[in-house]
Amino acid sequence: MHPPDADSTDRPQPPGAAASHGGPNGAELERAIAERDRELAWTSERLVAELHERAAAQANMLAAERYDPATSLPNRRLFEERLAQVVIEHRAAEEPAAVLIVGVQQLVALRGSMGFRAADHAARSVGERLRLAVRGADLVGRVGDAEFAVALTHLRASSDAMPVARKLIELVDAPLRIEGQDVCVSATIGVAVCPADGIDADALMQRAAAALQFANETSVRLYQFFDPIVAQRDARRLQLHADLRRAQQAGELLLHFQPRVNARTRRVIGVEALLRWLHPRFGLLPAGQFVDVAEESGLIVAIGEAMLTQSCVAANAWPREIGLSVNLSAREFRGSDVDTMISRVLRDTGLAPRRLQLEITESSLGRHDAEISAAIERLTRLRESGVSIALDQFGTGACSLTLLRDFAADGLNIEGKFIRSLPGDPAAQAILRSIAALGRHFGMRVVAEGVETEEQLEFARKAGCSHAQGYLFGRPMAQDELLSHLEQLGPHLTVR
After folding, report:
1. Based on the domain organization, do 295 and 220 belong to the same domain?
2. What is the pTM of this model?
């Protein structure tokens, strides 16, 4: 047997030699190469797919950071970035522009009453209406749960924003069809103009938001342009925000009490507790000037419980036939444990529940059917604890007749502005008679608030008011002054 040629394996083989000398081995090699090609192709395809998936994930992450998921509109971050560019361009061209913050407060209530999907549907519909209502060069974004923003570009004059605001309100206020039913929402708009109100995006957004807040709180108009009055009010509001937390701990929040009388006999039958703030800079402030700030800051719940406790303690020092009336703010009333809080305070202070009357404004109860239904359930639970319920500032809200039909409150307080314009205002006379007649029909105590003269008292009494309150019977006073006042009235507690 001869040894193999030493260099036989190194010599190049002619084409086809492997196949001719080792057929099966050649086929296996071809299969191995084909398999490797398939593996490389699969790896390449998988790599491309992963790159696409990663790019898509990055795009989705970027979209989530810059777009509102419910409406697909730019969110606050992206809107302000684009607005900053618009401001730069308009300053260079010396053209006015305007920022409109569109508030639709019912979107938050819809989430609680109909669920997230319905609320998202409503927000999407509102956003689409806004987008279709403006020009292609204008910007639309969703900048909060209940706020949208619109930037109007290339205006001829600042006043051009006014008809646009009216148009947007009209479009947003049209009923929405959600889950087979018509749902009504309403828009309020704050407007800031560039360059008059600001020369950067942040200032314009802040001032449009301040104008929106002013419009919401004053209820004077559906849209509000930023102006010096709004600016002064906003600065004061910021100061109150900063001071309020300290005020509670410093003992600056006080209670004053105002008598309420039987309109016929003038006998004191109740006392209303009124919150005051002895501010070191602004002096003695009534609740109307800071309670909304307390609600925004979230302090109203703690302040409200503390004031209710102090009121109940104070009432224990009065004659037992005198009742106590206490106002509940919107945030307190809508709290899930308000009935538990009331029961706890009555238990801790020992005040009989029948002596306590809770006063709730119409604005606290909501405007739409779902909100009013939830409010009636809450009112019913409160009444089950033994306290009575009065509708305060009646005639200034939007749910009056619906509420009267579905919930028989114990009392009805007629807003003081109607009383103070008596007896010379025929319209106020008609309103007073109508409200008093409604109250009597439903078996309620009807209170005329803000009575300052004998003529007003006489007219209110003849119109059907059973009780009266106002400066004619006593101004709001501290507890020691009230006790002295009641003592001076004598055992019959009659105001002369």
Report:
1. no
2. 0.64
